[in-house]
Amino acid sequence: MDSTLIILCIVAFFAGFIDAIVGGGGLIQTPAGLILLPNEPVARVIGSLKVPAFTGTFFAARNYLKLVKIPLPRLLFFTTVAFSAAFIGSFCLTKMSNQFMKPVLIVVLLIIALYTYFKKDLGLKAAFNDVQFPWYKGAAICIGLGFYDGFIGPGAGALLVLAFIGSLGFDFLQANAHAKVVNLATNLGSIFLFILKGSILWSIAIPMAFCNALGGILGSKMAINKGNKFIRTLFLLVIIGTLCRLGYDVFLR
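-> structure tokens emitted (253 positions)
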């Protein structure tokens, strides 16, 4: 068990690092957890991994918020909606299979990857109006992707980044700051549900949480220092990784 925990902690660090830069840390952490803990129920593994995901996102969000100021009403509104949506999504996960949604997501992610690749200026500069902020668009993003993160999860952080850029006109740094705050709320919503269900292995979750947090701190600092072009490149790689993961689940399993 000790060697398994050490490997999971190393994985958690790299997951936190990638997730802090552009989202998608679950693509690293979730498969590793399912492989290394084969005797545990899937819901318990997923529930346990939400704890390190939360801590890494927390410290990453803190670093981003030092640079990007989010108005308090927007922050409270987004996080409340996202928390509720993720709680409902995780509840649905305990009741039904999410396999039927994966083929649809493959098509969506393929379109996103092509759009990001060919639109060279995507997210490199801000183009949103803070005076007439479209709250309904923000609410739709938090509901849709909040539910998705609670129900399925892979690449949710990266999808949040793209949604904030495409719908609200943020640049990558602004989108990352908002995505981290929303992702923090979705992770908390899922954790709350899994605690109620008794589906968290705290002996695994807590050590992983420390490592994920360290990765989140370092990753967010690198993203802030490197800027939008660096984040855009890594974003595209994460979307492609998400595609490969879902493609494996649908076609090869």
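The chain has a mean pLDDT of 82.
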